[in-house]
Amino acid sequence: MSNELNKYQQDSEFANRQDDEIDLRELFSVIWQGKWLIIAITFVFAVASVAFAISQPNIYKSEALLSPADAEQGSGGLAALAGQFGGLASMAGINLGGGGGVDKTQMAIEVMKSRQFTSEFIQKHNILADLMAAEKWNMTDNTLVYDADMYDAAQSKWVREVEPPFKPEPSMQEAFKEFSKIIAVNAAKETGMVTVSVEHLSPSVAQQWVNWLVQDINNVMKERDVTEASKSIKFLESKIQQTNVADIRSILFKLVEEQAKTIMFAEVRDEYVFKTIDPALVPEEKAKPKRALICVLGTMLGGMLAVMFVLIRYFLKKED
């Protein structure tokens, strides 16, 4: 009985292997019979991918390499004073803060990515049309061509048709979304270097925007620190008038001195947060699209879809 059972199992396994071989042969046969259809579909996808790749405009990328400015900017001195005289100052009702300072480099990076900074940047430099309506770039005269359905360049007027609550002129929220797609600000963990890059149809526009970004972030962070230091000096001077304790007055005078250093440092240095190591250049070569890659992937996709179509059609007819 056991011999018959083993023989039955062996016969079943042999039959299954034969079925697998037959199925593979059948699949190859179906593909071979539908080779012309597969070739035709693949050819259509190849032509379509080539046409799509050619229709895509060149995008140029300009970038600058920056180094965090090595300056204490008042934070180091205040941190030292907080460690030495924090307890004594707290007796006078003054909080010198903790020993750790704020990472101005990281703060500057986050400010550059913020909605407020982006909105002020776009409005200050009047680049909304170049950002939202640019359609292509003329290399001969280095000018931008705008989408006529969105922006009338002759009259400097937005003419796009949108549904409420949107208006013909894009809002700063729309501009922020678009600007976030073309700007990149990255800090290298190993070296601490910061890279700022912009992608645009025009290489000169990309380079100009990078320069403006570096200049504006230095000015914004400078203004913030100067404003904060000025307010701190006024506060500390009022505290000096309110106390007669010599040690506390000495601490307060040192704090005023540190804040004055911050203001002085800001006024004499243009590269306040970032120093430019490698400035942005007008790129000569495009960054994208990768037209060859688009053509290859499009052709491969067409071939795979064609094979699937031939097999599915065959098995549907077989079931009928």
From TrEMBL:
Membrane topology field: Multi-pass membrane protein
Any Pfam family hit: GNVR
Subcellular location: Cell membrane
TM stretches of this protein: 36-54, 292-316
Domain Polysaccharide chain length determinant N-terminal stretches: 20-124
Swiss-Prot/TrEMBL keywords: Cell membrane, Membrane, Transmembrane, Transmembrane helix
Molecular function GO labels: protein tyrosine kinase activity
Entry's Gene Ontology cellular component terms: plasma membrane
UniProt keyword Transmembrane present: yes
Keyword Cell membrane listed: yes
Domain of life: Bacteria
Principal subcellular localization: membrane
Tyrosine-protein kinase G-rich domain location: 275-314
PANTHER family xref list: FERRIC ENTEROBACTIN TRANSPORT PROTEIN FEPE, TYROSINE-PROTEIN KINASE
Name the record gives this protein: Wzz/FepE/Etk N-terminal domain-containing protein
Organism whose genome encodes this protein: Shewanella algicola
Taxonomic placement: Bacteria, Pseudomonadati, Pseudomonadota, Gammaproteobacteria, Alteromonadales
